[in-house]
Write a structure and sequence with these properties.
The protein is mainly α. It contains 30 helices and 19 strands.
Length: 608
């Protein structure tokens, strides 16, 4: 043990103790002192047991206390109190310190002034930038480019003592960031009480928090290496806020980065969204960051339009979960402008998407895949005509009768032309041919319609309903024109289904009512009607039966008809009835004609 020694402080590094011991024994450099006493200085700095025991013997301190805060270097990586800090994570040629702490050290009158300031092990940890005692930033108080002075705290701080009051006044007062709180807890208690982060080496926590926080706080082009100590303190705070929540927190942070990019006009790209955070994860080969890469990979696949064959963070994507208008248009062979119009018209996209670039309109695959595939396979009416082999006129009639229905209705802002699904057309042909029997002879549907003098859609309806039994198939034709029917059988259905009643036009003519009056009486429920299929047009039509019309006419009469029956002017008849208290029937208020009950007219003005 040396005659002149200095006391070891709690939390002091062995290098700081050795530096102060050198000063106390009259040596300017710790390196020279180590040579004098035969001390392995490199071993002391690296935290090796034998050199530390030798230093403890020289100053008479407890070896265990000396080892407690001794930074260690193993295979180039730094450790402190069992926590791995990574490579180049200790401050070696720069002395960062709390100026308030150093000023307090200088008040210790028990030892010489030049050996009063001492270096705290925590000050060497790069991710710690705030004093927990005085709540102020750690300032750089000394710096050297000479390797002979690395870790030589006493030699480096000595010349700066005069400047400490000014540095102290200029220091920023602040509380430690949450990342610093966590790092301090890991180093002092061995746990930060966070299951997700505690599963990572400490250097992985600090590097990820600061790199992610840098792009969150300062933009995707900023890396931790570009920032000042104050900016790194803020980056650590922001990054830890996300990282401390595990995967949900990281995903939320990535969402914000995506939203921030969406309002820019730059080219699309994953690296553009996540910036330097992505670049670092893609470049760094350390597998300790794989849990972070896994989260970023999953989030990218879940939220961005990447598909099979693309590579994200050196991993190949095997499943697409998100489309952009651009990627969807390429996959389904649809123009992005048309696809965007369709999806907006159908409420799958919002109207605001109409003004956004195709690459910035994102939509889950499960919301667009089925519809886009249908649109991709849809045939125009002209193509459907060729596929059905039904000719232009018959195809148009099939469409207008609602027998073939488009998956996309044309003539709208979103769709200029109709679109028909192949599966739907196949189902129609299959049903049309379901009654076909081998060896049955006949004529095509259009030919049968001309000979029977009826609508071809009437025959089609009979076929689809399975009511025709004499149906054959022309093996030299295909599709619609391959179906053969018996004209005589069609005529038999015409005779059987001829409407028994009066068409609305016939009622109009017989009763001398306007068409508006006829429809008004029917729609108002005053005149019963039936709906039947017109055998000529094949369309559904309304008819009025003779008995119903006669019953109505026996009960009610229009003002004009009553005046005509009595040979008087309708205005005079109306005035005479009003004078005798007979008013129009209020039930007909919605009909564009005046109706009275016949019994009321007869009682008021009996005929002679």
């Amino acid at each position: 043990m040396l005659k002149i020694v200095v006391p070891l402080n709690v939390g002091e590094t062995p290098a700081s103790l050795c530096s102060r011991l050198a000063q106390a024994n009259g040596r300017e450099r710790m390196l020279d002192f180590a040579l004098d006493v035969g001390l392995d200085l490199a071993g002391v700095v690296a935290g090796q047991p034998e050199p530390l025991d030798r230093l403890a013997d020289l100053c008479g301190c407890c070896p265990d206390m000396l080892r407690e805060w001794a930074p260690m270097t193993v295979d180039g990586a730094a450790y402190l109190r069992g926590e791995q800090l990574g490579r180049r994570k200790l401050r070696r040629n720069r002395v960062f310190a709390c100026t308030a702490c150093l000023l307090c050290d200088l008040e210790n009158d028990d030892i010489d002034r030049e050996v009063r300031p001492w270096g705290r092990a925590l000050w060497q940890v790069r991710s710690l930038r705030t004093c927990r005692i005085h709540h102020q930033e750690l300032r750089q108080v000394a710096h050297t480019t000479e390797t002979g002075f690395h870790h030589d705290v006493a030699a480096l701080v000595g010349p700066a003592i005069a400047d400490l009051p000014a540095l102290h006044e200029a220091s920023e007062r602040r509380r430690p960031s949450r990342l610093e709180d966590y790092v301090h807890a890991r180093l002092t208690a061995g746990s930060g009480r966070n299951g997700f982060l505690d599963g990572l080496p400490l250097y992985a926590v600090t590097r990820t928090c600061e790199t992610l926080g840098a792009v969150i706080e300062y933009g995707p082009e900023k890396s931790a290496e570009d920032l000042t100590e104050h900016d790194l303190w803020m980056a650590g705070e922001r990054g830890f806020k996300a990282m401390s929540k595990g995967e949900p927190g990281i995903r939320s942070a990535l969402d914000r980065l995506q939203c921030a990019f969406q309002i820019t006009s730059g080219d699309w790209g994953i690296a553009k969204f996540y910036g330097r955070f992505h670049d670092w994860l893609a470049r760094d080969e350390d597998h300790v960051y794989d849990p972070i890469r896994d989260i970023v990979f999953r989030h990218t696949v879940d939220t961005l339009p990447v598909g099979p064959g693309e590579v994200v963070l050196n991993r190949e994507v095997t499943e697409r979960r998100m489309h952009s208008m651009h990627s969807a248009s390429r996959e389904y062979g649809l123009h992005p402008k048309r696809l965007r119009k369709i999806l907006i018209a159908e409420g799958i996209l919002s109207p605001e998407d109409a003004g956004r670039h195709y690459e910035r309109i994102l939509i889950p695959v499960d919301r667009v895949a089925k519809r886009a595939a249908e649109l991709s396979d849809a045939m125009s009416l002209t193509r459907a005509q060729s596929y059905l082999n039904s000719g232009e006129v018959q195809t148009r009639l099939l469409f207008e009768a609602g027998i073939i229905r488009p998956i996309v209705l044309g003539g709208t802002l979103a769709h200029s032309s109709h679109g028909f699904l192949k599966d739907d057309l196949d189902a129609f042909l299959s049903k049309l041919r379901s009654s076909c029997r081998p060896g049955v002879r006949g004529v095509t549907i259009p030919q049968a319609a001309r000979r029977a003098k009826c609508a071809s859609m009437f025959i089609v309806a009979l076929l689809l309903e399975g009511r025709l039994k004499k149906v054959g198939l022309d093996d030299k034709e295909h599709g619609y024109l391959a179906v053969l029917v018996d004209v005589a059988e069609v005529i038999s259905f015409l005779e059987r289904e001829n409407p028994v009643g009066l068409s609305l036009q016939m009622v109009e003519k017989r009763m001398r009512w306007s068409f508006a009056v006829v429809t008004g009486l029917i729609d108002g429920g005053h005149l019963p009607f039936a709906e039947v299929r017109n055998p000529v047009t094949g369309q559904r039509q309304r008819i009025v039966r003779e008995t119903d019309l006669k019953a109505f006419d026996n009960t009610f009469v229009s003002l004009h008809s009553a005046a005509s029956e009595r040979g008087t002017h309708f205005r005079k008849l109306k005035a005479d009835l009003a004078a005798r208290g007979v008013m129009p029937d209020p039930a007909f208020v919605g009909v564009p004609a005046t109706f009275f009950r016949r019994s009321g007219i007869e009682e008021a003005l009996p005929r002679s």
